[in-house]
Amino acid sequence: MKRPRIMIVEDEWIIANDIKNCLIDLGYMVTSISATGQEAVELAVADQPDLILMDIMLKGEMNGIEAAREIRKKQRTPVIYLTAYDNQYLVEQAKQTENYGYLLKPFKDRELHIAIDLAIHRAAKDAEANRD
User: Fold this and answer.
1) In sequence order, which residues have a C-beta less than 8 Å from that of residue 100 and are 6 or more positions away?
2) What is the pLDDT of residues 33-70, one digit of tens each?
3) How many angstroms separate the Cα of 93 from the Cα of each of 12, 85, 102?
4) Residues 122, 78: contact at Cβ < 8 Å?
5) Rounded to the nearest 5°, which phi and psi values hold at 73?
6) d(C-alpha 21, C-alpha 8), whole Å
7) pLDDT digits (tens, 9 = 90+) for 94-109
């Protein structure tokens, strides 16, 4: 079985690097790390990851929800939001992008692993259903 390829979108380098190391330790492959929404859209198209871990608050003009929306217009890559914000407005905005998860920071490695595993499983089922 191939290792899932994951893209990280996180504007804080230390957090992004911690997530990268965690993913590698869990057996995933990291395709790229982006700090802005616009760069995330470009890298998602270029890298074609199996999953995107997306911070909601990013550097630049485009936040993570807007970036996920733009990526979704181009491809069906599942997105798990990673954020320190749990207000209802953001949750409602995130729902509209058909995301595959919403993890509040700080999270444990095990929580991240479970969220990724569930998202990849659901994405495979969704792809299978769309083929029928």
Assistant:
1) 51, 78, 79, 80, 118, 119, 122, 123
2) 999 999 999 999 999 999 999 999 999 999 999 999 99
3) 22, 12, 12
4) yes
5) -65, -25
6) 11
7) 989 989 999 999 999 9
User: In angstroms, rounded to a whole number, what is the distance separating the alpha carbons of residues 12 and 17?
Assistant: 9
Q: Are 22 and 112 in contact (CB under 8 A)?
A: yes
Residue 116 tokens, joined: 């990724």
Domains of the chain plus CATH, in order, are 5-131 (3.40.50.2300)
Sheet with 101-104, edge to edge strand ranges:
29-34, 5-9, 51-55, 79-83, 101-104
Question: Which tokens go with 66?
Answer: 């807007």
CA gap 60, 76 in Å, rounded: 24
Q: Quick one: which H or E segment has residue 9?
A: strand 5-9
Assigned token pair, 71:
């990526």
pTM score, two decimals?
A: 0.95
